[in-house]
Amino acid sequence: MSYNQEDEEPFGYSQMPVGSFSKQLGYGYEDDNDQDPFPGAPMSSDNKPRILLMGLKRSGKSSIQKVVFTKMSPNETLFLDSTPKIVKEDISNNSFIQFQIWDFPGQIDFFDHTFDSDTIFGGCGALIFVIDAQDDYTDALIRLRQTTTRAYKVNPHIKFEVFIHKVDGLSDDDKMDKQRDIHQRANDDLQEAGLDITFSFYLTSIYDHSIFEAFSKVVQKLIPQLPTLEHLLNILIQNSCIEKAFLFDVVSKIYIATDCMPVDMQSYELCCDMIDVVIDISCIYGALEDEATAFDNKSSSTIKLNNGTVLYLREVNKCLALVCILREENFDKQGLIDYNFHCFRTAIQEVFELKENTKQKPSKYLNDTGLSNGYMQGPAT
């Protein structure tokens, strides 16, 4: 489905609630007959990297998981009960995003004989420790030190991430002060324990897009093909006069890759809201009775803002979308941009195919994408 809109206000549609797109759009495929347009070797649950969500009780772990991956409204999380046991969820919407999320109860005892550190931390790709920024976090920092010490001894390759959560109720100065204090105290604990660990810190809230941006950074560290995807996006924007490009998972609104230009939070929010608009409009006007979702290979959208900026979305596969930001005067060559997009989409497909042929070198498609800058006499070969 194609959707075009002339926006009279620069950010007129940015007030849509987070997670407003249709709940019909889910991970995976609706039935066994659906085929992944970019086939990749399926991964069993045992082989998938794990993301562990840890922290004290009521720190917001389950709310994060529900909002990001099950499309729950942030207001609905107020009625969630405390997690009594480890909750595991399998995330498998395409060959790029395949992992498990384990949500741990806050009262877990690492010194209990039933706690199997080798099993839990052995296959862990990333450990996210959630700290409630609106509460006294002294005990949380103690638990963070215990958790990282135990995990590092089992698996020194774990990526350690710290979400300083619930910052929506804090002023900008308070946010910076708390981040600085937590950063300093956590690193002092690491130095005292003699651990060679690097924490990544994020200010997050489920009431804005910060939690999606933070999870994007975490998930990207688990994607082996990330450098290749970033390189392809760099080639695309250079040859198409694009200011910024994101490769989005339309289900969670996590961006699995972007180009080398810095990420502006406002631009990211605009792109997320655009995905919501496209999915909502498509499900209302584009879905047939026998279709689970209207997001397909014909899905595209162009939104022109009155500040001279154009947002352009194209479907890459069933759960991936390319969202670009460019100046209106550069959008005059839409045919060139569309041609380059098809070359980009073909290159993405080759990335999947390389997973099945480990002998093939990635440079094959990196050096021969066929992208055109508009000054060539014909398509590159």
TrEMBL record:
GO cellular component term of the entry, any: Gtr1-Gtr2 GTPase complex
GO biological process per UniProt: cellular response to amino acid starvation; negative regulation of autophagy; positive regulation of TORC1 signaling; response to amino acid
Pfam family, one: Gtr1_RagA
Taxonomy, superkingdom: Eukaryota
Reaction(s) catalysed by this chain's protein: GTP + H2O = GDP + phosphate + H(+)
Residue spans of biased composition, Acidic residues class: 1-10
Signal sequence bounds: none
GO molecular function: enzyme binding; GDP binding; GTP binding; GTPase activity; molecular adaptor activity; protein dimerization activity
Keywords, comma-separated and alphabetical: Cytoplasm, GTP-binding, Hydrolase, Lysosome, Membrane, Nucleotide-binding, Nucleus
Location in or out of the cell: Cytoplasm; Lysosome membrane; Nucleus
Stretches for region Disordered: 1-46
Main location: cytoplasm
Family classification: Belongs to the GTR/RAG GTP-binding protein family.
Name of the protein described by the UniProt record: Ras-related GTP-binding protein C
Organism from which the protein derives: Bugula neritina (Brown bryozoan)
